[in-house]
C-alpha cells in the first residue's frame, strides 16, 4: 500500500514536469541549440574542412585545453549514468566545488605542458572524468520502470 | 587562422549561455527541469540513442584511429547514423528501456564507433 502510494506520487510528479511549461521550454531550447549547432557545422564543413566545430574542439583538446576531455567524461557520467537514490553520500554543491577545483588544476596543468598530449592520455582523461563524475556528481535514478517516462 | 577563432568564440558563447540557462533552471521554482534532468528523462525513456551519440562524439573529438575501414568516405557517417536509427527504433517502437549499466555499454559502443568509423586522423 505504502509503495503503491509512493509510486503514484512519483508518477504525478514526473507527469507534472513533462507537462509543465518550464520542462517543455528546456526541451525546446535543447533541441534548438543542438539543431543549430548541427546546421552550423554542416555549413562550416561545406565551406572549409579545417575549421568546423569538430576540428576546433579537437585541436584545442589535443593542445593545452585537455580539460575539455575531462569535462566531457564528467558529463558522460552525470547525464547518462544515474545512481539509486540512497547511494549519494556527498552533498551536491560540495561535489560540484570539488569537480571545479580539479578542473581548474587540470586547466592550469595544460598551460604548462608545451607539447600536444598523446592520444592515450585523452582516453585516460575521459575515463577518469567519467569515474569521478560517477562517484561525485551522479543524478538520482527516478523509477525507470515508470511507463510514463 | 581566420574562421577558427570565430568558431571558438561562438562555441564559448553558446557554452556560457547554456550554463547560465541551466543555473536559472536550477534556481527557479519548478523542480527537475534542468538540462541534466531532461536529458536523463530522455535517455532512460525512448531516446537512449543520445547516450550512444555522446560516446560517438567523444571518440570523434578526442580519439580516432589512424586507419579507416572505408577510407575517407561517407560510408562511415552512414554506419553511425544507421546504428543511431536502429537504437531509436528500439526505443520508440519496442519499448526497450536501458538501465544505468546498459547506458555505460552504450557509451562504450559509441566511443569505439566514433574512434573507428569517424576519426579525424586521416
Explain the layout of strands and helices.
The complex is a heterodimer of chains A (149) and B (122).
Chain A: H1 2-19, H2 21-47, H3 53-62, H4 67-80, H5 92-112, H6 119-136
Helix pairs in contact in A: 4-6
Chain B: H1 3-27, H2 35-43, H3 49-62, H4 75-93, H5 100-117
Can you offer a commentary on this structure?
- The complex is a heterodimer of chains A (149) and B (122).
- Chain A folds into two domains: 1-48; 59-140, no CATH class.
- Chain A starts with a helix and ends in a 13-residue tail after the last helix.
- In chain A, helix 4 (67-80) crosses helix 6 (119-136).
- Chain A is flat.
- Mean pLDDT of chain A is 81; it is low at 144-149.
- Chain A is 72% helix and 0% strand.
- Chain A is mainly alpha-helical and 149 residues long.
- Chain B is mainly alpha-helical and 122 residues long.
- In chain B, 70% of the residues lie in helices and 0% in strands.
- Chain B is built from five helices and no strands.
- In chain B, helix 3 packs antiparallel against helix 4 and helix 3 (49-62) crosses helix 5 (100-117).
- The model of chain B has no long low-confidence stretch (mean pLDDT 86).
- Classes of the chains: A mainly alpha (149), B mainly alpha (122).
- The interface between A and B is large, with 53 and 46 residues.
Amino acid at each position: 500500500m505504502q509503495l503503491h502510494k509512493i509510486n503514484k506520487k512519483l508518477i504525478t510528479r514526473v507527469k507534472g514536469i513533462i507537462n509543465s511549461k518550464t520542462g517543455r521550454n528546456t526541451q525546446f531550447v535543447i533541441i534548438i541549440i543542438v539543431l543549430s549547432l548541427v546546421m552550423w557545422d554542416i555549413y562550416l564543413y561545406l565551406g572549409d574542412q579545417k575549421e568546423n566545430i569538430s576540428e576546433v574542439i579537437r585541436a584545442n583538446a589535443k593542445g593545452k585545453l585537455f580539460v575539455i576531455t575531462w569535462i566531457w567524461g564528467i558529463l558522460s557520467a552525470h547525464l547518462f549514468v544515474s545512481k539509486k537514490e540512497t547511494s549519494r553520500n556527498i552533498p551536491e554543491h560540495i561535489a560540484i566545488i570539488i569537480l571545479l577545483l580539479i578542473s581548474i588544476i587540470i586547466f592550469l596543468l595544460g598551460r604548462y605542458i608545451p607539447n600536444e598530449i598523446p592520444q592515450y592520455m585523452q582516453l585516460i582523461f575521459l575515463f577518469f572524468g567519467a569515474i569521478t563524475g560517477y562517484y561525485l556528481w551522479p543524478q538520482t535514478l527516478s523509477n525507470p520502470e515508470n511507463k510514463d517516462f | 587562422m581566420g574562421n577558427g577563432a570565430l568558431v571558438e568564440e561562438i562555441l564559448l558563447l553558446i557554452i556560457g549561455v547554456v550554463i547560465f540557462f541551466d543555473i536559472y533552471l536550477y534556481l527557479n521554482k519548478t523542480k527537475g527541469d534542468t538540462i541534466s534532468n531532461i536529458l536523463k528523462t530522455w535517455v532512460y525513456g525512448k531516446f537512449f540513442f543520445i547516450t550512444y551519440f555522446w560516446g560517438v562524439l567523444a571518440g570523434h573529438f578526442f580519439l580516432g584511429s589512424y586507419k579507416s575501414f572505408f577510407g575517407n568516405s561517407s560510408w562511415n557517417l552512414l554506419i553511425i547514423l544507421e546504428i543511431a536509427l536502429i537504437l531509436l527504433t528500439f526505443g520508440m517502437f519496442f519499448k526497450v528501456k536501458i538501465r544505468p549499466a546498459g547506458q555505460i555499454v552504450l557509451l562504450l559502443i559509441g566511443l569505439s564507433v566514433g574512434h573507428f568509423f569517424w576519426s579525424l586522423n586521416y
